[in-house]
Amino acid sequence: MPQILIRDLDRKTVSSLKKRARRKGRSLQSEAKIILSNAAQEESKDLEAVIRKLERFRSRFKGRKFSDSAELIREDRDR
User: Fold this and answer.
1) Cα(58)–Cα(46) distance, rounded to whole angstroms?
2) CA–CA distance, 62 with 69 (Å, rounded to integer)
3) In the structure, what pLDDT confidence band is assigned to residue 40 with cuts at 50, 70 and 90?
């Protein structure tokens, strides 16, 4: 299994993580692993939500044809 090493954490952060782990009956390593796993899953869920929104947006305009905006801009500038 891959490993990760995090250097130069400040003492307050480590102390806070140790307290959190102790409250939950876990080791510091176990608590850090759970925090990182949860954060990675949340990121994945956020990305999936954005992709679903984009797909719904695209489907609303599927099959429609739009004018070339460059032509509209050129016409406006020529006024």
Assistant:
1) 18
2) 18
3) confident
Phi-psi region at 24: left, alpha or beta (left = phi > 0; alpha = psi -120 to 50): alpha
- How far is Cα of residue 20 from the mean position of the Cα atoms in its chain? 24
Rg of the chain on CA atoms, in Å: 25
> Is the pTM value of this prediction over 0.85?
no
Residues whose CB falls within 8 Å of the CB of residue 77, separated by 6 or more in sequence, listed in order: none
Helix spans in the chain (H): 11-23, 28-60, 69-78
Predicted confidence (pLDDT) per residue in 11-21, tens digit: 999 999 999 99
Q: Which pair of structure tokens corresponds to residue 8? A: 């130069």
Q: Which two tokens stand for residue 38?
A: 């949860």
